[in-house]
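C-alpha cells in:
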C-alpha cells in the first residue's frame, strides 16, 4: 500500500497517509486539526533496518552526548528521530525541543535551572 507524506497548511503538522488500495480512501485530512488543505511532500528514501540494528547504532553514539549540554542532547534527539523515523513521532520531538529551548533560555539568563514559583496567596 502506498504511503504519502503531507504537511498541513493550517497547523503545520507533518504526517504520513496510507492510501487504501481496497477501501479507496483517497481523501487525506490532517490528524491534528482536520483540515484538508495539505501539501504533498517528497519523502526520504528509507532503508529498512531492524529495530535491533537501529538501537545498536544509537547506543554507539550515546557515549558522545554531553548530558550537561542542551545542544548535544538536541543533536542526539534529532539523530534519534531521523533513525527511528515515524516511530518516535513528531509530538515527542517537538516536546523535547521545547524543553531544551527552555533550559537554554534559563542558562542564558544565568539561572542554570528552572525555578518553581509558588503562586498561592497566603
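Residues out:
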Amino acid at each position: 500500500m502506498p504511503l504519502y507524506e503531507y504537511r498541513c497548511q493550517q497547523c503545520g503538522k507533518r504526517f504520513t497517509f496510507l492510501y487504501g488500495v481496497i477501501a479507496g480512501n483517497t481523501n487525506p485530512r490532517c490528524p491534528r486539526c482536520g483540515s484538508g488543505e495539505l501539501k504533498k511532500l517528497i519523502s526520504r528514501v528509507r532503508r529498512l533496518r531492524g529495530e535491533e540494528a537501529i538501537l545498536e547504532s544509537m547506543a554507539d553514539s550515546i557515549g558522545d552526548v554531553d548530558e550537561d549540554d542542551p545542544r548535544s542532547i538536541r543533536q542526539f534527539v534529532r539523530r534519534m528521530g531521523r533513525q527511528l523515523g515515524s516511530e518516535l513521532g513528531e509530538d515527542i520531538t517537538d516536546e523535547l525541543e521545547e524543553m531544551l529551548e527552555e533550559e537554554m533560555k534559563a542558562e542564558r539568563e544565568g539561572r542554570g535551572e528552572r525555578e518553581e514559583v509558588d503562586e498561592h496567596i497566603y
